[in-house]
Structure formats: structure tokens, C-alpha cells
Design goal:
By secondary structure, this protein is α/β, with parallel strands linked by helices. Helix content is 41%, strand content 10%. It has one domain. It contains 13 helices and eleven strands. Helix 8 links the parallel strand 5 and strand 6. Belongs to the 1-acyl-sn-glycerol-3-phosphate acyltransferase family.
């Protein structure tokens, strides 16, 4: 599944790092840059080098201008540790003794129930095995029907439990230029691409069309979540793997398999490779576009009054807790028409990715940003350093 799901059950409160989402989500593209292995929420030398004599408030304002796509603007502030008015504390207290216990119990029950369903449907059924990995993407018949239908239903119930009682969905319809005329309207797109804001994105996509995601190989070994990710048909990748295919090669192969076999699940990719605050769209990695297949763009938005479901500058445990404390959460989804690449875009994956990105930004009223994961790491490290200095001064 996605690294977002890992973040919910890992030893440190997160199943995987946010940037991989999708990592489990990440689009698995080839950006040509070496990957930075530093943890997102740990102070580092990059932040130290950026330190100056400015006051904390001035420095914070400067950071927020420079790293705008990752800045939280909700009532809980940066890192979810802002000063709250008394009324907000009262609401949190009420939710803590009413909503949170119920939601935790029901949420755990739903996960365990779906685990048992997946375990039952995979009994005496041989999984795909390749390079030490296994999945059930090829599952067919009644097993597949049960896994998909119960998975979609329980995912929607889980969203309801988290406070997403209503999901506003809209479908845009417009004519592309000649080079994008759809050759076959009945053809199913093999890839769904979406902006990435929160681990909640995964739950929505599971409830909507139950696609496969990209996940770290370690996700397959997680209790409960492991078998669920295998039934999703997740593509497992490993950074240190010496496989000649690479992430992009694995994705391209899987997308082509889905094109040839309509029984295979579609691939769901987050080409930004990390999460934002929902107002921006980062550069796209090319992994979702190398197969030259049509893509289905989906835009997610989380309107909020008090707490933003966006997962940035806040730990996994704190984020889940505050999300559970909200009486109502909102999600808006914009479905765009299937995007068929032109001949030029087929030959140039970067052009293909950029054109889809521009379309999504226009239709979703999102701001295009040129910064990426490296800048996000610097921003998080700087915030942590400021937090440590503040704690020492108290």
C-alpha cells in the first residue's frame, strides 16, 4: 500500500516517510537527483547553515515564504504545536472523551475485519512471486470480487469514521486539442495520477476504484497491513535494491500488464513524490508517464475550518490524534477526463508529465511550485532546530 499507511502503524507512529508516499505513492519517476536519506523531522546541518541572527518570528516568516507549499495555516499552527485559544482546548477535551475512543475502536475493528477477509480470500491461492516479492494482483473470480467490493465499502466506512461524512465529487468535461482526441472512449486508463496531501488520499482512492499503489517492500511484512497491501496488488520497491529495472522500470512494466490484462487493477500514483499543504502542485516525476499510456487526473482538496488534514510539518501520531478530534472533516474531489498523450508527449515523458501537471493546476486552481523533496527536508530540519532552540530557552 502506500507509505502513508505505514506511517499509521510503524514503531514511531508512521508506517513510512511522507515523501514516499506512494511512495507508496510517489510516482517513482527519474528526477536524476540523488535521494536524500535524512529523516524529515530531524535537525540537520542544512538547517544549521541557514541559521542567522534574525528573531525567531522573522526567521519563521522567511521560511514560510521560501517553502510555501509545505506551510500549515490551520488553527494548530506549524508542526501542530501552535498556541490554542481556550475554546479550542474545550473542543479537544470533549472530542478526547467522546469521539476519539469510539473512532479508535471502530477503526481498529474495520482493519482487523478486512484483514480476515483478505486472509480468507487468499487461502490456498498462490500469489505472484518475483524478486522475493509476492502479491495478488492477478487474483480473479469470486476472490477478487469479494476483496475489491468489501475493500471499497470498508474504506468508505473508515472515511466516515474519520469524520468525512460527505465527499463532494465533480466530473469535468471538456474538449482537448486535436492532438489529444480520445481514440477509444471505452478504453480503461491504466494509471490514475493525483496530487498528494495526506494519507487520507489512500483511503479515498481505495473506496473509489481500489487501485494498486507503490509501497516500500517492508510494508508487505507489516501485521494486518501486509496482506491487505498484497491484495491491493501493490508494487513493492526498495531503494537499496540492485535490480536493473529500477522503480520506473517496474512501474512501466506493471502499467503495460494492466493494459494487456483488464483484470489487473489500475495503478494509482502521486507523481509529486511527497505531500503538500494542498494549495500547490510540485514538479511531477516521470514514472507514471514512461509507459506512454493514458492517465486519469484526479484533484483532491481538503477544505477546513480548524484542522487541516494535510500531512506536513507534523508527526504522524499528532496528526492522527488531531484528525480524530475533529467533529467534521471535508474532502472535495475533481475528476478530469482521461488524458491521452500526443505523439510528441509519448516521445518525451517530461513534456507529458508537465502538460498533465499544468492541466491539473488550472482545473484545480493550484499554484505551480518548482521546489521539491530536498527543500521540504531543509524546511522540516529548520523547523525542528528552531523548536529545539525554543525548548532550551524556556
Amino acid at each position: 500500500m502506500s507509505s502513508e499507511l505505514k506511517d499509521l502503524v510503524g514503531s514511531n507512529g508512521s508506517l513510512d516517510s511522507q515523501e514516499e508516499s506512494p511512495h507508496v505513492g510517489g510516482g517513482g519517476g527519474s528526477s536524476g537527483k540523488a535521494k536524500d536519506e535524512r529523516p524529515l523531522l530531524k535537525p540537520g546541518s542544512a538547517a544549521s547553515e541557514a541559521a542567522n541572527a534574525a528573531t525567531p518570528s522573522e526567521r519563521l516568516e522567511e521560511l514560510e515564504k521560501k517553502y510555501a507549499p509545505y506551510v500549515r495555516k490551520d488553527a494548530y499552527g506549524t508542526m501542530g504545536r501552535g498556541e490554542l485559544p481556550p475554546a479550542e482546548w474545550v473542543l479537544l477535551g470533549i472530542a478526547l472523551v467522546t469521539l476519539v475512543p469510539i473512532r479508535l475502536v471502530v477503526g481498529i475493528f474495520l482493519v482487523v475485519l478486512y484483514y480476515l477477509i483478505c486472509r480468507l480470500c487468499t487461502l490456498f491461492y498462490a500469489p505472484n512471486r518475483e524478486d522475493g516479492k509476492e502479491d495478488y494482483a492477478h487474483m480473479v473470480g469470486w476472490r477478487r470480487v469479494v476483496v475489491v467490493r468489501t475493500g471499497r465499502f470498508l474504506s468508505r466506512i473508515m472515511l466516515f469514521v474519520l469524520g468525512f461524512y460527505w465527499i463532494r465529487e465533480s466530473h469535468r468535461s471538456f474538449s482537448f486539442e486535436d492532438e489529444h482526441e480520445q481514440p477509444d472512449e471505452s478504453e480503461r486508463p491504466e494509471v490514475i495520477v493525483s496530487n498528494h496531501i495526506s494519507y487520507v488520499d489512500i483511503l479515498y482512492q481505495m473506496s473509489s476504484c481500489f487501485p494498486s499503489f507503490v509501497a516500500k517492500r517492508s510494508v508487505a511484512r507489516l501485521p494486518l497491513i501486509g496482506i491487505i497491501s498484497k491484495c491491493l496488488g501493490c508494487v513493492y520497491v526498495q531503494r537499496e535494491s540492485k535490480s536493473s529495472k529500477g522503480v520506473s522500470g517496474i512501474l512501466t512494466e506493471r502499467i503495460k500488464e494492466a493494459h494487456q490484462n483488464k483484470l489487473y487493477p489500475m495503478m494509482m500514483l502521486f507523481p509529486e513524490g511527497t505531500t503538500t499543504n494542498g494549495n500547490y502542485l510540485l514538479p511531477f516525476k516521470t514514472g507514471a508517464f514512461l509507459a506512454k499510456a493514458p492517465v486519469l487526473p484526479v484533484i483532491l482538496k481538503y477544505p477546513y475550518n480548524r484542522f487541516s488534514p494535510a500531512w506536513d510539518t507534523i508527526s504522524g501520531v499528532r496528526h492522527v490524534f488531531l484528525l480524530l478530534c475533529q467533529f467534521v472533516n471535508h474532502l472535495e474531489v475533481i475528476h478530469l477526463p482521461v488524458y491521452y498523450p500526443s505523439e510528441q508527449e509519448m516521445e518525451d515523458p517530461k513534456l507529458y508529465a508537465n502538460n498533465v501537471r499544468k492541466l491539473m493546476a488550472t482545473e484545480g486552481n493550484l499554484i505551480l511550485s518548482d521546489i521539491g523533496l530536498a527543500e521540504k527536508r531543509i524546511y522540516h530540519a529548520a523547523l525542528n532546530e528552531m523548536d529545539v532552540v525554543h525548548a532550551i530557552m524556556l
